[in-house]
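For reproducibility, we list the full input for the S-adenosylmethionine complex.
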Amino acid sequence: MGDNNNSIHNYYSPNDLYNKIIEGLDKLGIDLSNVTLDDLQPVDEFHIRGDTATNELIALSDFTPDQHILDVGCGIGGSTRRLSHETGCRVTGIDLSDEYIDVAQRLTQLLGMKEQVKFNACSALDLPFDDNSFDGVWSLQMNMNIEDKQSWLSECYRVLKPGGRAVFYEVCANENAPLHFPVPWAQDTSMSFLVKPDAFRDVLKSAGFEITDWNDKTNLAQKALAHMQKPVGKPTLPALGVYLLVGEDIGTKAYNLHLNLDEERVSLIETVGVKPEA
Ligand SMILES: C[S@@+](CC[C@H](N)C(=O)[O-])C[C@H]1O[C@@H](n2cnc3c(N)ncnc32)[C@H](O)[C@@H]1O
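The corresponding predicted structure, in tokenized form, follows.
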């Protein structure tokens, strides 16, 4: 693992995460034999606008029940499970963090979805799958941690079957710089590799994708985070939240994300690329 991958792996490797999530469910009075996707949503859909965005992306994806989809950078698998639940398709999630993958597997078992949803700890830059093996690719908010975007998108393209669709929902740079740090995906500049939307689009094309959909979601992200206040003093944390994934300074990280969006330092893009038929 290179130096960047090491620090990113460490950033996304909290201790004892599964038990902390179970404690959180318990505190909320949720019956563990009857946990739903919505119960876990505050902690397991780690991207801007959470399940609202996931549902919009599912509608955009056009994935069907007979398909097998690869979720690249799946985290603890919230949107992996929601995608399978809503479309009926099989989904395999991969992530660099083995702690996240362990938790993803255990939560999937808890929800009784093990037949349809599987996980694998590996890097998006070196996928352990044959060429043309998935009907679709799905990758939500992980490009920020990837310096070598060409390898990431070429790997997504390689494992996708001809005619298959790849859905991306990604934070990009914007007109202004530098970013306010820390942000939810990085403590500092050493872990954050944003490029402007045009550059992201160019890499998608050079990997071979034909772009069929391109939607700028920055406005919706700005609205979703408009209420953020600068945190003062010790944070009051809910029973379940993404602070369990990336630390108790999440209030500062979310506030900085709000500033970065409002000051046009970051943007948010939803796009679909198709691998042309041979
Ligand atoms: C902000 S989280 C998003 C997680 C998930 N897609 C979601 O929306 O809930 C970013 C994820 O990308 C993963 N990641 C970062 N670099 C990676 C790489 N090179 N290969 C695979 N996963 C990576 C991290 O471990 C983390 O789980």
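DSSP finds eleven helices and seven strands in the chain. Strands lie at 68-72, 90-95, 117-121, 134-140, 160-173, 210-216, 266-274. Both points were considered when choosing residues for closer inspection.
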